[in-house]
UniProtKB/TrEMBL annotation:
<dbReference type="InterPro" id="IPR007627">
    <property type="entry name" value="RNA_pol_sigma70_r2"/>
</dbReference>
<feature type="domain" description="RNA polymerase sigma-70 region 2">
    <location>
        <begin position="18"/>
        <end position="77"/>
    </location>
</feature>
<dbReference type="InterPro" id="IPR013325">
    <property type="entry name" value="RNA_pol_sigma_r2"/>
</dbReference>
<dbReference type="GO" id="GO:0016987">
    <property type="term" value="F:sigma factor activity"/>
</dbReference>
<feature type="domain" description="RNA polymerase sigma factor 70 region 4 type 2">
    <location>
        <begin position="121"/>
        <end position="170"/>
    </location>
</feature>
<protein>
    <submittedName>
        <fullName>RNA polymerase sigma factor</fullName>
    </submittedName>
</protein>
<dbReference type="InterPro" id="IPR046531">
    <property type="entry name" value="DUF6596"/>
</dbReference>
<dbReference type="Pfam" id="PF04542">
    <property type="entry name" value="Sigma70_r2"/>
</dbReference>
<dbReference type="GO" id="GO:0003677">
    <property type="term" value="F:DNA binding"/>
</dbReference>
<feature type="domain" description="DUF6596">
    <location>
        <begin position="188"/>
        <end position="288"/>
    </location>
</feature>
<dbReference type="InterPro" id="IPR013324">
    <property type="entry name" value="RNA_pol_sigma_r3/r4-like"/>
</dbReference>
<dbReference type="GO" id="GO:0006352">
    <property type="term" value="P:DNA-templated transcription initiation"/>
</dbReference>
<dbReference type="Pfam" id="PF08281">
    <property type="entry name" value="Sigma70_r4_2"/>
</dbReference>
<dbReference type="InterPro" id="IPR036388">
    <property type="entry name" value="WH-like_DNA-bd_sf"/>
</dbReference>
<dbReference type="Pfam" id="PF20239">
    <property type="entry name" value="DUF6596"/>
</dbReference>
<dbReference type="InterPro" id="IPR014284">
    <property type="entry name" value="RNA_pol_sigma-70_dom"/>
</dbReference>
<dbReference type="InterPro" id="IPR013249">
    <property type="entry name" value="RNA_pol_sigma70_r4_t2"/>
</dbReference>
Amino acid sequence: MTDHEFNRRIDAIWRMESARVIATLARMLRDIGLAEDIAQDALISALEKWPADGIPDKPGAWLMTTARRKAIDRIRHGQMAELKHVQIAHELEDVQQERFDAEQAGLDDPIGDDLLRLVFVACHPLLSPEARVALTLRLLGGLSTAEIARAFLAQEATIAQRIVRAKRSLAEADVAFEVPRGEALQERLASVLEVIYLIFNEGYSATAGDDWLRPALCEEALRLGRILAGLMPAEDEVHGLVALMEIQASRSHARTTADGSPVLLLEQDRSRWDRLLVRRGLAALEQAGRIAAARGVERGPYALQAAIAACHARAVTAQDTDWGAIAALYADLARQVPSPVVELNRAVAIAMHAGPEAGLAHAESIASAPALKHYHLLPSVRGDLLFRLGRHDEAREEFQRAATLTRNERERTLLLERASRCTAP
């Protein structure tokens, strides 16, 4: 095995195991920042020992044991004056036994419980969305600060500062390392789902830069979503979000040409859609529906968006799409989550179902919404509908305006190309 292959394998192990190590230490130490530092120390030990000794059969257990020992040493050598640290040290010594006893007795996995607690802390609503995303990718994704910065086209120092401030804010607010209960659970769960979907969307349609897609972020969001579904199997909206991401991700290979140029949904080669991801998404959507029905509630926003994506996934060709059903689903979504962006998507569905004039009328009815003032997709949608109505000069102006509003270079090029095609027949 070459050094490059060896390092890639260790990197993959860290991505899979780091969150569990940090989660367990955070529960015992009551300090996420300290937990991450000690987990990083364990990784450094692995990088020093594994090249000579070989990667152990159970690398996750090796990292956990090493991190536990380092935590105990740090507490005993530096902080033994406080009684609570003595207690923490004893608790750390019991971590491995606790895990073994639970496995032998067939009880709930305490490590899994710790991981769920870490999810809720990293996505705590007291943090800004940007901080939640960065902290989640760092603690749960195992991404380095440099990797997060590259993914979001930000300065590494900016991301590092964002993460440090987030951990400080959590410590100062004395945020409990626990899964909320009762009504608070749904509120906090909404924050968790929002963070995962923000990560996915940045990968699926990059807001800025030279790339239309950033697949690594989509994959990371999907991994986090699947983990959350395993940790919270009775939550319908968790399955709804997973369904939405699976189905949307299924189109990834068809969304760009060989040179990376965007391909719009109706023009995509559907034979390139990943049918395995489609099947997984449809199964998750059915699971979300069953859970919602059993609880006596209607489908939530993520499940509704997944249902819309499913309409596209089930259509063999673009012409087979049930746009009437999609328009109705958007109406349900707008009722649950009033939003001009949802209404803009609904305008597109109305146009496909009832004609461009009807769609344009709906788009015009929301055009003055403050949230759409600098939203490039409003003039983009208007341009498309005006073009279909034969109003080419107006369409060209809309596409040109949309091009000035987007920060993604691939999308800007596409919009300008569409503007150039707006000539009278």
